[in-house]
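Changelog-adjacent note: as of this version, every example in the card shows the full chain rather than a window. The one below runs 266 residues end to end.
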Amino acid sequence: MEKVVLEGFTIAYEEQGQGEAVVLLHGFCGSSAYWEKIGPLLADDYRVIMPDLRGHGFTDAPMGAYTIEQMADDVAALMKNLGVSKYTLLGHSMGGYITLSLAQRYAERLNGFALIHSTAYPDSDEAKEKRLQAVATIGNKGITPFVDGLVPGLFAPELRDTLTVEVNRVKEIGYKTPPQGASGAALAMRERVDRRDVLSSTVLPVLLVAGENDAVIPIERTFTTEGPSVTKAVIKGAGHMSMYEAPEQLAAVISDYLRGVPSARK
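Full-length structure tokens:
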């Protein structure tokens, strides 16, 4: 785990491989460890950079609400500090919301971008209420009970009992999330804006990945745009966590996409 301090704020990240830069952003109550099965499968051909997002892992977790734009700016600042002027950005779930913010405001820095089990839609009113309930649960009971309730629902129902090692691993990663970090990020997701226009108007190569059995973000909420630069992939049998449910399949989809990104082509 590497760390950099930018204007007093510490950002942690993992890095593997060499070549064109590919940045992987994890989801809520995750960390760079979410990519532990994917990073090595890409590192033979690319420089894979996996940050811990604001409030997660070993990156600083300030008190108070965060914004998706703030979390995106952290990633942009990290890449600038690392001397990486252009990169391909892939975001899982919450990481996808951050990816869209970067694609909207820093498109010139991207070779392409991907949403993995993510969506350009904002939270519904019901989802916004659930974010507040999450913050209350974390505040009243702590991060461990919250993660215990969260993680099983991220996996496809058919896989929860067979992937007990993977489910427990995702819980273990989640337990390390600072409570104030989880709360700050939940509030950031609650206030995010509709960015479907970013997907529909971008000229960059886009990859949209959905899990066949994702109960968190259904396929139709990921596949919101069409076009010659848009690649869509459904991970068969997977829920919201294909990086653990079907890592080889997800890595193959990502590799195929990267080969079609001009600046990242191998």
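Structural remarks: The first helix runs from residue 39 to 42.
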